[in-house]
Write a structure and sequence with these properties.
With 224 residues, this protein is an alpha+beta fold. The protein has one domain: 2-Layer Sandwich (Yope Regulator, Chain: A). The protein has eight helices and five strands. A five-stranded antiparallel β-sheet has the order 1-2-3-5-4.
């Protein structure tokens, strides 16, 4: 028998018995239920466990919604700060907050710097399923260049070392299998503690620095 199952069963059983002792277990039997005491206890335990599971699922769902809304607000604040920083550096950015306009919660925000509709920046969160960062959650800033391999992506890679030196950190690419589908991005990964600690100032500065470090090279490649 699975030791994890036994451990969980014992934990739930002890919790159930405590709730019974406190009078918190609701008795809800059908009229034709057997009166056997052992079976009654088992049925009580089953009903209690089902209710407990439903409550936990509801709490998890609410927590997920709250976290998503909180992250959405965090991103809006970061973008507002980054826009101000970049404006002071002579760079204009544009973005649309669907949460502010329509009340739609977003986990990614797209940032327009160029007239090109398919080259843009975005900020969101990610948890890589493969590669060296597998399983860890990050705040990520992407430079999206999908479908522009020869014109933009490959030439920009020649400047990658210079950009990384300026930023003081390495940039990530998509996995080869993803790039093979025409998705070309450079990613700046930040530890998710930045979000948990609500460090909007740091996130905004990193976003602004990333845009400022990459934009001139993109302009040279004709992205305006």
């Amino acid at each position: 028998m699975d030791s994890n199952f036994v451990e969980q069963f014992t934990r739930h059983k002890n919790e159930f018995l405590k709730e019974m002792t406190r009078g918190n277990v609701e008795i809800n039997f059908k009229s034709d239920s057997p009166a056997d005491s052992k079976k009654m206890i088992l049925e009580l335990f089953e009903q209690w466990l089902l209710r407990k599971n439903e409550q936990e699922q509801l709490q998890l769902s609410q927590t997920t919604r709250d976290d998503t809304q909180s992250f959405d607000v965090f991103l809006d604040d970061v973008l507002s700060r980054a826009k101000k920083i970049l404006s002071e550096r002579g760079i204009k950015i544009a973005y649309t907050s669907l949460s502010n306009k329509f009340g739609i919660t977003e986990s990614w925000k797209c940032i327009r710097v160029f007239g090109s509709s398919n080259i843009y920046y975005r900020i969101g969160k990610t948890r890589p399923r493969k590669g060296p960062n597998k399983g860890r959650e990050y705040l990520v800033i992407d430079l999206v260049m999908d479908g522009n391999k020869k014109q933009v992506f490959v030439p920009l890679l020649q400047k990658k070392d210079v950009i990384e030196h300026r930023l003081g950190t390495s940039l990530e690419r998509e996995l080869p299998k993803v790039e093979a589908t025409g998705k070309y991005r450079l990613k700046l990964l930040l530890p998710y503690e930045v979000v948990r600690e609500r460090n909007k100032r740091l996130a905004a500065k990193k976003l602004a620095d990333f845009v400022e470090a990459t934009k001139p090279y993109l302009n040279e490649l004709g992205v305006v």
